[in-house]
Amino acid sequence: MSTHQETEHLPPQPLDDEAVSQYLMENPDFFIRNARQVEQMVIPHPVKGSVSLVEWQLTRQRQQIVNLEQEITLLMEQAQANQHLFSQLLHLQSHLATATDLAELQQRLHQWARGLGLAGATFRLFNDSWQLAVPSGSHHVGLERHVFTPLQLQRLSQDNHYLGRLHGPELLLLLPEAKAVGSVALSLLTDKGQDVGVLIFSSRNKHHYQSGMGTELLDCIAGFLPQLLTRWISRL
Question: Which residues contact 192 (CB under 8 A, 6 or more apart)?
Answer without folding.
Answer: none
